[in-house]
Write a structure and sequence with these properties.
Blueprint (H helix, E strand, L loop, with lengths): L5 H13 L2 H8 L3 H15 L4 E4 L2 E4 L1 H24 L8 E8 L4 H12 L4 E8 L1 H9 L5 E4 L10 E15 L18 E4 L5 H13 L4 E5 L3 H9 L5 E4 H9 L4 E18 L5 H12 L1
Helix pairs in contact: 1-2, 1-3, 1-4, 5-10
Length: about 290
């Protein structure tokens, strides 16, 4: 039986991603002559021409594009194996890494962890970051789940999504803003707001609402972390736009008041994952747990 040389496959993948032998050589810390020789051996083994050479650039052939799909899939499986090896001795416990968008409220992260933990023999590790970097980690196999308030799409991966929660969005502020309850939402005209960045869909939806109402406003501060947004609102730095569930603890403690709800505006949180070629039974159980 002839075995595929995984070193050859890795070298091919890096060359394809970097676009040249020289760039791949620097990334791999392998000399260019040796890398070229390894690529030649790989092409001879497969009986295929994988690249067309255009100066120093390496352009994938149609056969190369085909091989690249499998190379990426094998690399993902390798990453999953390495990620789980450290926990193989924990009596069948499987670790899943949850990447939570930094703008997602901590209450929603806790809800996602609780849903995942309903599946037996599951260990959860949580990391936070921007939606863009976490989605890159997801498709690269570095995290198992993406938790955010949007559903990113990737044509090269089979994505699975489950709706974790949906909450009504309202305007909140310190007690000094209680006068704005009267004549809401027109009372918001000219007021100061503490808002998430433009990458947050809620920011877009809120600004669209204000534009349709013909209401101008001031963006006093931008911040992604919801805990920081609420803390700034408590300190009177401006009004915030947030879901009912995300602010309930602060409202119960008397730190925030609801100025008013925005009709037809809600925020939905999604748990996304790439369908794995192995261990997909755990994924099915987790999706079912979230659905319940």
């Amino acid at each position: 039986m002839n075995w595929l040389n995984l070193h050859h496959l890795k070298y091919f993948l890096i060359i394809a991603e970097e676009g040249s032998i020289s760039a791949a050589s620097k990334k791999l810390l392998v000399g260019q002559p040796a890398l070229s020789s390894q690529l030649k051996q790989f092409e001879e083994y497969l009986g295929l021409k994988l690249f067309n050479r255009l100066g120093r650039r390496m352009i994938l052939t149609p056969e190369g594009e085909y091989v690249l799909k499998y190379a990426r899939a094998i690399k993902q499986l390798e990453d999953e194996l390495i990620s789980n090896l450290g926990h193989a001795s924990e009596a069948g416990v499987v670790e899943f890494i949850l990447g939570a968008q930094e703008s997602v409220p901590k209450s929603m992260i806790a809800l996602a962890v609780s849903a995942i933990k309903t599946v037996p023999h599951i260990k959860v590790k949580v990391i936070e970051g921007t939606g863009e970097e976490l989605f890159t980690f997801l498709v690269g196999g570095k995290i198992d789940f993406f938790l955010g308030n949007f559903r990113p799409m990737d044509e090269g991966k089979e994505m699975i999504y489950a709706s974790l929660a949906k909450e009504q969005v309202s305007i909140w502020g310190a007690k000094v803003y209680s006068k704005l309850k009267k004549n809401f939402p027109h009372s918001l005209k000219g007021e100061r707001f503490v808002l998430p960045g433009f990458q947050n869909p809620l920011r877009h939806d809120f600004e669209k609402f204000m534009l349709e109402m013909g209401l101008t406003f001031e963006v006093a501060i931008e911040a992604q972390d919801t805990a920081l947004l609420k803390e700034l609102a408590v300190r009177g730095q401006g009004l915030i736009v947030m879901g009912e569930e995300s602010t309930s603890t602060w409202v119960d403690a008397g730190k925030l008041i609801k100025v008013g709800s925005i009709p037809k505006l809600s925020e939905e949180y999604w748990l996304g994952m790439v369908r794995k070629k192995i261990d997909n039974e755990h994924q099915k159980m987790i999706i079912k747990a979230i659905g319940n």
